[in-house]
Amino acid sequence: MDTMRDRFAPVMTRLLDEDPRVAVVLAEIGKDGFTEARRRHPDRVINIGIREQLLVGAGAGLALTGLRPVVHTFASFLVERPFEQVKLDLGHQDVGAVLVSAAASFDWPAGGFTHMAPGDVALLDTLDGWTVHVPGHPDEAEELLRQAVAAGDDKVYVRLSVQSNAQGLPVDGARFRTVREGRAGVVVAVGPMLDAVLAATEGLDVTVLYAATVRPFDGQALRRATEAAGTDVVLVEPYLAGTSTAAAGDALADVPHRVLGLGVRRRELRRYGTVDEHLTAHGLDAGSLRERIGGFLSASGRPRP
């Protein structure tokens, strides 16, 4: 199966052909996928070199001229390194762009910690007005990318990953999707965490919600799910643990509830390893998730099968 990032250049090439407002801004990474697109649209496919602050600044400048810029590089170089430009050039100037990242939390362990960005979504949470898509399958990535480009002048972050669920689901860029219904708790699986969550909760009497878009947070879907399944909530996210616990708490602010946030731990892993080894070390493999989710639900006093 191809990866989410494999879809990026072909989809963007078609969008460049279809929409004269679309522009792509690169910082070396991914440029080979745009050779033909750059030949056809030399004024709208721009490689600024390894200059990540300029990458975001150039995208903002294009937005000020009325274009719809799509800005791409690794997450650590797209959100963390040029954060001041994301905050000021886009946010303060109130212009939109589509930031499309690769490498996610630890997709390329051999690159070391400089190429990892488990805090990217949490960092964007400090800013106003961002839509954040976290697809769990290449088909979802393609659909959400198209929606992001078509989203007027909004500020959108699309988080691509080599981690993927076995099958894609229909996504609308807004709402959580109910995958399984139960009565003893709610588990929200974000993006590529869904397959592990389904395996971890097999036989447990819980509702599983799937989120491919996490900002805005679909608090209404969470509230509806808790009406039948109770207000014990577990969030399983492929980035920094606890990133969405405040959003879940806000959705349930007027009812007693418990929230457990599972994700990438703050402790830095100083060995390269593999993606699967990082998942296990952070407790995000199916076996670890079952133990942690089961323990949390048992502590509530609710009966479990």
Automatic annotation (TrEMBL):
Xref: InterPro entries: PDH/Transketolase, THDP-binding, Transketo_C/PFOR_II, Transketolase-like_Pyr-bd, Transketolase_C
Domain Transketolase-like pyrimidine-binding positions: 2-167
PANTHER family found in the cross-reference section: PYRUVATE DEHYDROGENASE E1 COMPONENT, TRANSKETOLASE-LIKE PYRIMIDINE-BINDING DOMAIN-CONTAINING PROTEIN
CDD domains recorded: TPP_PYR_DXS_TK_like
Pfam families in the cross-refs: Transket_pyr (PF02779), Transketolase_C (PF02780)
Protein name according to UniProt: Transketolase
Coiled-coil regions, chain positions: none
One term of GO molecular function: magnesium ion binding
